[in-house]
Task: inverse folding
């Protein structure tokens, strides 16, 4: 059997961000991904970041809520994010915002 390759374009990217004085101080990327397993796409949250100087002011939660709304608007059936095992404070934040711990992430770094 031969493995074949076909290029597809089933991903849409959304960037949510906040600027202050011309500097980006917070951001989040949402990737809307379609595959053959489901009729509806899923959302993947990536690179959510808030500058240390403004952490604790609610920007991260506001970004997260906008990202979730964007995934819902795109018709996603689920919304996922990953986090390193050592980031227990971030895990608690995700749980506080409605996420549940689910599965494992496996990775190869190039």
Result:
């Amino acid at each position: 059997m031969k493995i074949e390759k076909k290029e597809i374009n089933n991903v849409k990217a959304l960037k949510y961000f906040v600027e202050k004085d011309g500097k980006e101080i917070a951001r989040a990327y949402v990737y809307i991904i379609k595959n053959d397993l489901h009729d509806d796409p899923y959302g993947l949250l990536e690179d959510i970041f808030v500058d240390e100087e403004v952490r604790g002011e609610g920007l991260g939660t506001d970004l997260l809520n906008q990202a979730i709304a964007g995934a819902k608007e795109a018709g996603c059936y689920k919304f996922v994010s990953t986090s390193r095992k050592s980031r227990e404070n971030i895990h608690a934040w995700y749980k506080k915002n409605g996420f549940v711990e689910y599965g494992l992430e496996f990775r190869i770094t190039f």
User: Anything to note?
Assistant: The mean pLDDT is 94. The chain has one domain: 11-96. Residues 59-73 form the longest helix (15 residues). The beta strands are 11-20, 23-33, 42-50, 79-81.
